[in-house]
Specification:
Pfam families: COX3
Protein name: Cytochrome c oxidase subunit III
Family: Belongs to the cytochrome c oxidase subunit 3 family.
Keywords: Membrane, Transmembrane, Transmembrane helix
Membrane topology: Multi-pass membrane protein
Number of strands: 0
Length: 218
């Protein structure tokens, strides 16, 4: 799944480099960086949990699994704040709700740019919409390019699909936690723990690619 998305991303990035560059400027790279650190920590705690299960240290293994689940929850909370702001300002494929619901593929681009220009000049409008002057300028750079919605299409599909994997992974880790607490896994049998651990490391690895491709491409 992600392989196909990465290939599509590379093709369209080569066709519309300015769209991807301007779009990445509207993302909060600091939130993306924090989420990267969170997932790296979760990778360590998951690996540690596997090691402790193999050694029969069920109590400390359970703590590591709980920490891994906590990291997954923190990742999704940060992603929630990112998504809600995107929907608020309207940087979603097909519309630009902050300026006008008709802006986007079906709207008049000149009118949309004029309204964003008004947003840039009006501190009151920016305050009402929780948008800084810098962000308004970046939004203007985005809407000024044809096919601007394409970047956000890739952003929501790739990060959304990754988020689904994070939630599924957290549920599987919870299942492993229950088995660990009940002593159903240990030095003699730890295959489920290793299997879930491998899945979680793949989730982390995919984000390692998504972060620079989406947040740092500009």
């Amino acid at each position: 799944m992600f392989g196909g998305l990465f290939v599509g991303y590379l093709i369209y990035h080569s066709l519309y480099p300015a769209v991807f560059k301007n779009g990445s400027h509207t993302l909060d790279w600091k939130m993306g960086a924090v989420n990267t650190v969170v997932l790296l920590i979760s990778s360590f705690t998951m690996a540690a949990a596997i090691n402790f299960v193999q050694r029969g240290l069920h109590k400390i293994a359970s703590i590591m699994l709980i920490l891994t689940i906590a990291c997954a929850a923190a990742f999704m909370v940060i992603k929630y704040f990112e998504y809600t702001h995107k929907f608020h300002v309207g940087t979603v494929p097909g519309k630009f709700s902050l300026v006008d619901p008709t802006c986007g593929t079906g709207g008049n681009r000149a009118d949309c740019e004029t309204k964003i220009g008004a947003l840039l000049k009006s501190e009151k409008l920016r305050h009402e919409n929780h948008v800084s002057e810098e962000e308004a300028a970046r939004l203007q750079a985005v809407i000024s390019r044809p096919k601007w919605e394409m970047f956000y299409g890739f952003y929501f599909i790739m990060t959304g699909l990754h988020g689904v994997h994070v939630v599924v992974g957290a549920l599987m880790i919870f299942w492993i936690l229950i088995k660990t607490l009940r002593r159903k896994v240990g030095p003699e049998y730890y295959t489920p723990v290793e299997g879930v651990g491998l899945f979680w490391h793949v989730v982390d690895l995919v984000w390692i690619y998504l972060f620079p491709l989406l947040y740092l491409v500009g």
